[in-house]
Amino acid sequence: MSTERAQETRVLGQAVVLEEAQEPAAGLLNRKVLGHIIAFLSPSLILVLWEVLSRAGVIDVRLFSRPSLIFETIVPLVRSGELLRHTLVSMERIILGFLCGAVPGVVLGLSMGLFPPVRVCLMPLVASTFPIPKLAIMPLILIVFGLGEPSKVFTIAIGVFYLVLINSMTGVLNIDPIYLDVAKNFGASRCQFYLTVALPGSLPMVFAGLKLGMGTALLLIVAAELSAAQAGVGWMVWRAYDMFDIERMFSALITLAFLGYIFSHALDWLEKLIIPWKDR
User: pLDDT category, 211, cuts 50, 70, 90?
Assistant: First the structure.
């Protein structure tokens, strides 16, 4: 009997432990579901509030329109394919500019973080040129690169470059020196310093810079498409502004917001894929 009671006690104990382990998991799942619901409803509540205030006359419809009118404008643009065409043109410019700015920003940032002589030589240049507004050098960019696609891509790239560079360098400088010492004692080459120490250790900060750079790219696309552009979401904004077509202008702005949402989630997914240990 004592053996049977011991087995029953052990089985009951395992069941209690399993139930206690399932309760936090269920609570975590409920919190995640609640978070997704809130994330979905918060923009919807803003749109509903905007519509109500517009119809009540609190918001001037001539300047800010209202969501129902904007939706009526978006539907024909989507059906005709015009909005998709402009969106694809802007996406191409954003992605090219982002890559052209992010790749050299990461490489140079890692170099400045790893090698003090490189940092001493380049940091004054970075510190003095970074505060210059990118819109202020638009005339110079147009003179150098002309009115074609290179000027638009470079405008986005120069804005992304500084943010990625500074965050990459900061990520390397925040690595525990013991990892660098271990790599040095084992005779690591410069390539191994980059690939096995600097890059993995600085990846969280690198992705922070990439996310900031993507936001900047979406800001600069409107300015880049101001000059000599014939298509693009930014061109739609400026064209609607010239014609005082408020609904069309807000349609383009909402499209930019949607692109920002998509690119942000894409970078989050890529971050979880490349550095899964961060969430732990």
Answer: very high
* pLDDT tens per residue, range 109-140: 988 888 888 888 889 898 888 888 887 888 88
Determine if the pTM surpasses 0.85. Answer: no
Question: Which residue reads 């819109």 in tokens?
Answer: 135
- Quote the percentage of the chain above a pLDDT of 90: 14
Q: What is the pLDDT of residue 94?
A: 92
Euclidean distance between the first and final Cα of the chain, in Å? 46
- The structure tokens listed for 215 are 């936001």
Please state, in angstroms and as integers, the Cα–Cα distance from residue 117 to each residue in 36, 122, 140, 190, following that order: 47, 9, 31, 15
Half-sphere exposure of 117 (CA within 13 A, CB side): 0
Contact call for residues 199 and 110 (beta carbons, < 8 A): yes
Provide the sign of the torsion angle of the four alpha carbons 136, 138, 139, 145, taken in this order. positive
Q: Residue 198: how many CB atoms within 10 A of its CB?
A: 26
Cβ atoms within 10 Å, residue 96 = 18
- CB contact at 8 A, 221 and 163: no
Nearest to 226 by CA among 143, 159, 151: 151
DSSP 24-83: HHHHHHHHHHHHHHHHHHHHHHHHHHHHHHHHTTSS-HHHH--HHHHHHHHHHHHHHTHH
87 token code pair: 């969106």
- Distance in angstroms (rounded) separating the CA atoms of residues 261 and 81: 21
Q: Can you give the pLDDT at residue 1?
A: 47
Per-position DSSP letters for 92-115, written without gaps between them? HHHHHHHHHHHHHHHHHHHHHHH-
Paired tokens of 91: 């996406």
